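User: For my dataset I need records formatted as: sequence, then structure tokens, nothing else. Please produce one.
Assistant:
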Amino acid sequence: MKSKIVISVIVILTFLATTPLFAQEKQAKSPKCGWQKEIVGGLNLNQTSFDNWAQGGENSFAWQVNLNLKFVNDQEKTTWSNSGKFSYGQTKSGKEESRKSIDEIKLESVLRYKFGTYANPYVAVTAETQFTAGYDYGTNPRKQISAFLDPGYFRQSVGIGYQPPNNIVKTRLGVALKQTITHNYPSPYADDPKTKKIEKTRSEIGAESVADVSWKSSVNIIFTSKLGLFS
């Protein structure tokens, strides 16, 4: 007998901390100022099971948790946007131990000053790291190569941001300072292989380009995408 069982479960939990619906008509007549809050969470589960499957394959199980936060304080002359992205997941295949499939902590704060045009100056700070230890499975036994804040990436930037009236796409371009900090795992994140000294921190200056897309197609569906470049 040949059989294949595939179980996939996707749970999306969405909570939008916005003004009640009954106040929308009243708000449409006045400018929207103050804090706007948004929290979107997701849990993905996937399981594949094989029984006498002639084409080969291994049983597998994967899970992933995502949490996206956004807090925006929109005032007459300024807009202060704060966001956080937290993602963690693991995959287990066959008899192998569970391995990380994703591990991200990303925080960002952007302050824009409004000149009354679509292009306005901004200052921004960002931070990136991970939750748990990362390993190189190409060695036996496995070798740890990263940990929480090891490395940690921090960036400060100033420049010009562009935001059209539809508020779906936001872009910014500026000059940035970037710091990479490490503790037990300086290589290859912060250490300069050209020197004998082991550097645990590295500072760089370069150009920053960031594009944000956020499109709310319905009450419970939001499409988001982000591209960030530093060179």
